[in-house]
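To: structure desk
From: M.T.
Subject: fold request, one chain
Message: Could you run this one when you get a chance? Sequence is below, nothing fancy, just the single chain.
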Amino acid sequence: MVSKGIKKILLNHGVGVLPTDTLYGLVGSALSKKAVARIYKLRRRNPQKPFIILISSLADLKLFNIKIDNRTRKQLLRFWPGKISIILACQSKKFSYLHRGTKTLAFRLPNKKNLISLIKKVGPLVAPSANIEGEPPPKTISQAKKYFGEKACPERSRRIDFYINAGKLSGPPSTLIQIKNNKILIKRKGAVKLY
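Reply: Done. Structure tokens follow.
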């Protein structure tokens, strides 16, 4: 899945569509303000809504100044790797371009080897589904191209840098939870049923 070209694109603020552990995602480096801003624009996403960030290990949380205690670590490892995204507190102003004033960020440690391998090489990725906000997520690359391809984005600067085809993907998005006072709050029902 990971070519040198794709690695180079993502390390240089580029964005692309690739299969995640749930759906096709529109991905870019979570550490690149430029890539994140581009994805907001491409998806026409509500600027108040943060993206989910894919990580390759718990150690990646340190990149966002997030420190976790042993209890939190155990809770995270109970759900990860897997199709559960978990909201954690992120007070750092440095990452306001990601948390959009919410002072929280949602992370997911996917259970997909080639995706983990890519994240290890390029760093954490923002990975919303590859659709315009309010439209259904694409099940195929040709559907993603209807949102972001040449016809949809005649201006070259608005086009996506790469597409990785993995055939038809369908299913629900990740389950989104927040752990507060040792209680699990379900923020979005999704791929994993908790109760």
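Reply (cont.): The longest strand covers residues 24-29. Let me know if you need anything else for the meeting.
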